Structures are given as C-alpha cells and as structure tokens.
Predict the 3D structure of the following.
Amino acid sequence: MDMSEHSKLLDRIRSHEARVGVVGLGYVGLPVAITFAEAGFPLLGFDISRRVLGALREGRSHIMDIAADRVRRQVDEGRFEVTDDFDRLDEADAIIICVPTPLSKTGDPDVSYIVDVTHHIRDRLRPGQLIILESTTYPGTTRELVQPTLEESGLEAGEDFFLAFSPERVDPGNPTWHLENTPKVVGGLTPACHELVAALYGEAIETVVEVSSPEAAELAKILENTFRAVNIGLANEMAIIADRLGIDIWEVIDAAASKPYGFMRFHPGPGLGGHCIPIDPHYLAWKMKTLQYRTRFIELAAEINAEMPRYVIARVTEALNAVRKSLNGSRVLLLGMAYKPNVDDTRESPAIDILRLLQQRGAEVRYHDPYVESIALDGTTFASVPLTSQELGRCDVVIITTDHAAMDYDLVLEHAPILVDPRNAVGKKEGAATVYPLAGPPRRGRQAAVSG
Ligand SMILES: NC(=O)c1ccc[n+]([C@@H]2O[C@H](COP(=O)([O-])OP(=O)(O)OC[C@H]3O[C@@H](n4cnc5c(N)ncnc54)[C@H](O)[C@@H]3O)[C@@H](O)[C@H]2O)c1
C-alpha cells in the first residue's frame, strides 16, 4: 500500500484541508455538504439539476430542513461551491455519493444513478482519493459494483484509492436528531479505507460507529428500514383486526405502550411513503432472490402496507354509505399530500394513492397541504386549496391523509360534515363532524345529531 497517499489524506482530513465533494445535493446530500462545510472543510457539490444548482448558487435552500441562511453563509464565505462539471471531481480528496436509489418499473433496484456517478469518478480517479457511497442499496453494491468499476481506471482500491460505505440516517422534519448528533455507521473496504472514512466523519459528526465491512454497513441500513416497514405493517394489520373486533386501535396502542420494556410504539395509518421505507427493503429482497432466498417478512409487510390506501377508501365508502351517499359524485377534500407530517416530500405518498383511487371511483377530489403547492397526477395538475370553513362545508367527506402540525383541526372538526382520520390527528376531540378513525366505531358529531 502507498502509505504516503494514505497518511497524506489522513493529515489533510485532520487539518480540515481535505476538499470534500458531495455528488447529489438532495434531502441527503445537501445536509451532508452543509455539515462538512460548517465543520470547516472546503466543499464542492455536484448535481445535474439546474434548479438545485441555481438555488444553491443564489444561497437558497431547496430542502426544508436546511435553512437558507446556512447555505448562504457557506456560499458567501467561499467554502461551498456547486457545479455540474464532473471534470472537477479530481479536485475532491473525498467524494461522497448521495444519488437516488429508486425502484424500476418492475420493482427491482434501479442502481443506474450510482452506476452513472461511478463512471464519472472512474474517468477522473487519481491516487489518494477516498470514495464513499451513502445511497441506500443492497449488501454487496460497494464491493461488487463500485469497486470493479473504479478499478477499471487501473488504480487499486485500498492501495491507490480508498473506498467505503456509510449509510445515511437523516430523518427529514425531525427536530431532535440531525446529521451531527445521529451516530454514523461506517464500513471500509480495507483497514486503510476504514481508517480514512472513520476519520473523515469523525471530524463532522459526534459519534462514528465502525463496522468491519461495507456489507455490514449496507445491511445495517436495510435492517433499520425493514424493521420500520415490518412494524408498521404489524400495526396496520392490528388496526384491521381491531376494526373487525370493534375496538379502538389507538387506545390499544396506548395501553401496550405503557409497558416500560419490550414494546415499541408504531402507528398504523393510510400507508407507507417516502423515498426509504417502502423502497429499501426491496433492495434486500432482490439481492436475496439472487441467492434463492425469499424474504417473507419484507413481502408480507409490503403487501399489508400497500393495501392501506384501499382500506381507507373502504372506510370512506362506509362513512358515505351511512348518510346514503355514494363515492361517485361525492366531494372529497384530502388534508395533506406529503408522505409524513411537517415535510414537503410527496414521494410514494399514500395520499397520492388515495387521490388516484378516489378519482377512479368518480369522486370530485381537492386537497389542502401547507407545504405542497401543487401536484401532477396522471396528466392532471392539482393545486392546494386554502383550508377555510367554506371549503370544508362544501365537502361530503374530509380525509386527514397527513397529520401536519400546522393544520387547524378545530376548524376541520367544526365545518367538515364527515371526517375520516386514519392518522388519529384529532384523537378523541369532539366537534360538529362525525369522525371515522382508522379502525373502530365512528363518533357521531353535533351535525349528525342535529340532522338526526
Ligand atoms: N430522503 C431521505 O430521508 C433519506 C434518508 C436516508 C437515506 N436516503 C438515501 O439517500 C439517497 C439519496 O436520496 P435523497 O432523498 O437525497 O434523493 P433526492 O432525490 O432528494 O436527491 C438526489 C439528488 O441527486 C441528484 N442527481 C441525480 N442523478 C445525479 C447524477 N448522476 N449526478 C449528480 N447528481 C445527481 C438529483 O438532481 C438530486 O438533487 C438514496 O439512496 C436514499 O435511499 C434518503
């Protein structure tokens, strides 16, 4: 091994002289870039989106969790530069890859973004660079896909350049846990790679958790997200069970959660969303298929979670039926398009599935979301309508698809005739509306009492 490249880079990391390149400046990449810039590293961000680059160059932030003034300060102080010129990849001492890892149309991993970026890096790779993959992916990606591609340059991993995987755990909208204080798992390809990746993150993040290989780090990330997908699936099935039994699921969860050990609270809801939980487990399922193993927990959880939007539609149909109305022709207002509260991200949002199912059944659908101005669906653009007593009053039914904290639920309870609340946003609150929780009997409101 060329100890001099290794120790030179280690010195540059420790002195914060190392230039950090971040490829892909989205929900993950931008916080990573800003965190390293704030830690004093010169930062070079790469993206292919003109919208993203334009905003960042002007010191604006396109990610809700990153305040614009944090971006502006780093840009103004000359520590954060962004570009779409991949020839500049050789200026970076460490390159962190944060590009998307979605599913293809057939539900298989789409690693084409990682492949593209790896090709860009291969063509400019120079001795002494540290390459870190952060995109969530199946175990083996770093060693089986990234390493051989980079070695096509003639340079050898662990000898001439260094390679590692470090999963991203950022939780958009989380006020407590952010990049700096969330422990960061790292796994290097060789001991030299390992030392460098641990050193780099150690300069910007409070706690670094070292595992012995990139595969262990890759699988740790998928375990975390599979754990959530499976437990949410269990909570959803329990909600369906509680409904059949005529029991209030939220009361049951509160009771179970009073156990001080051995139980962890997970919430049922209208379905899974976001770029991670519904997608990441399928990366592992796909990998295991190549090894003739069926990941049954993943399949079952996905099946139950994917059915939840239809379950909500059944609930809405039941609520309308009780007042002798059909879904066809009914006016429906969805509250929330984002996949989870207090974020503007609509990727894989169950609200979109619900919107589509309602449309297919002939309902007249509108939505309100303080964070999502408009949404394009199957060739139609929907714009968020203001949340007013008139808007609520003209509806036959209102559905709380996302429990944003900024929503005026008292107004909703006062003016919606029927409220379907799969998120338990209004809890046991009383109002004029009749409330259908995700599971269990409806609570008749004052409006129903007046009209008999
Ligand atoms: N969003 C989350 O909460 C979260 C959490 C943990 C892990 N992850 C993982 O992180 C990765 C990135 O996710 P994200 O949510 O940040 O995605 P994102 O879509 O918000 O951002 C990706 C960025 O990469 C850019 N990009 C695409 N192709 C590129 C290319 N060839 N070269 C340079 N830039 C390119 C896009 O323009 C975009 O700005 C995924 O693997 C995801 O699973 C996401």
Remarks:
- The chain has a mean pLDDT of 95.
